What we know:
Calcium-transporting ATPase, cytoplasmic domain N, 572 residues, 16 strands, 3 domains, 6-stranded antiparallel sheet
Amino acid sequence: MADSSAAPEPDPGAFDSAGGPGPVADAGQGPSTLLQTLRRLDSGPRGLTEAQAEERQARFGANTLPTHREASWPRTVLRSLRDPFTVVLLCLGLVSAAVASWGTACVILLLVAVSCVLRASGEHRAGRSMAALRGLVATTATVLRRAGEDLPPDAREIPVDELVPGDVIRLGPGDLVPADVRLLRAQGLTVHQAVLTGESAPVAKDAADGAGAPGGGLFDRPELCFQGSSVASGSATAVVVATGARTRFAAAHGRGEARPEASAFDRSVHGISWILIRFMLLTPPLVLMANAALRDRGLETLPYAVAVAVGLTPEMLPVIVTMCLARGASLLARGHGVIVKRLPALHDLGAVDVLCLDKTGTLTQDRPVLHQALGPDGRDDSEVLRWAAANAWWTLQLADLPAPDALDDAVLDAADEDEVMAYDGVAALPFDPLRRLATAVVRTPGRLGTHTLVVKGAAEAVLERCVLEDEQRAELLALAARHADDGLRVLAVATAQRPARIREYTAADERGLDFRGFVTFKDALAPTAAEALKVLAERGVAVRILTGDHPGTAVRACRDLGIAVPPDGVLT
């Protein structure tokens, strides 16, 4: 995975002479402020007018990834003629026709036609299937557009390919980020950037200027979100700064579209072909010379020489190879739902001896599950899970969040529903990236004069608000660090008793807490991953895991999947 910090930084809103937003600026210039970005885009918080959007659509084009145009049917057939045996057979067919051996010429041309049509039809059918699948994925975005300069903006859904630089869009949980955007406002926003960075953990985003750590990489910039990422939690309003081929995702996509090299299968077939071709080219002249020397005959023996050449040529080889590959593609499509775009790729699949797999979304489900609930002594403690679940449930209910955070979802899945509902919710302070914690205020039935603050969040943020000796705090931080190094995600849980009151609770009340324990999470494994890895091992295929996650997280996933990782088996 490339280091994003070394990549040139896009200048949001800068326009180049070609009519597109300038995607690249010197990284040393530093990020633009929100006001500078809006000025360069000639936009504002109210979005574009319909006239501006139409003009920019014509100027920048559709917000789609650059794709290679599918080859037409005639072009696919012509491409099939490049096979060495096919070329030789065509030459022999022409020679046969030249010497009036029409039967031989017709048979040869029929074999060539069958081979080319079979291969071309398979590839053409696969291309149409891929196009149909792409057509099923119709994605929309919520955009603010105005009918005129002085009219208020109207929020409506439009296809993502109609977005243009300067559009103001709204994002919510589960939304795909449809273009490269600069945040205008954000509330508790976290996004998944695994498709760009390989990191499975959601990343907090913030609209404030200069909110990022100095010297961080491009994808670490909290005010920027990139096409291909998805919203894990929170909501935001953002302005589009790059679309289509000018996005970072499109740049990475383009680098992966290089023309593939010849496969081992192609090289083997071509090698055998050229050996036979050399014998075939050598034999007819020898036959002619032998007849001329021994029987004093000349060109009248040419049909016999051509017949010898045809006999040496395995005319059925292209047909047999193509039919076998087409049969394999059909079985994969019917039995496993796999679309084979190139028939020779089937041999590549069968010849694999080392398989490199992405962890996130392939071996794991890109969602966490609860691993353990631990007390301050590091032992299992169900009470910690009960408090964590109360925090997750009442924060979701009282803070009016559209959907639970992924970690909260994992807590609620593991908790006893009756225990969670034993409390009455009073108030909630939702998670935000600055505090790095969330607080729910609950009341235990029968204790009307007391409220309980239940705080859950990053270990450092929670522990610094707890009443602890420095030595105790250091020991607990070390315990959390050990679990993190073991590939687990760790949240701390604390509570505090407060006299019941009517006035609102604020972040200032998150002090003087009693530490309760930790809840730890691991990646949920794909249901079929372990069995698939077992089958690969039985068939002699070595597996290598590629990920942008912390090495400990990768080792944990491998261990859970039954993959042995030697001490020197992790490369970073």
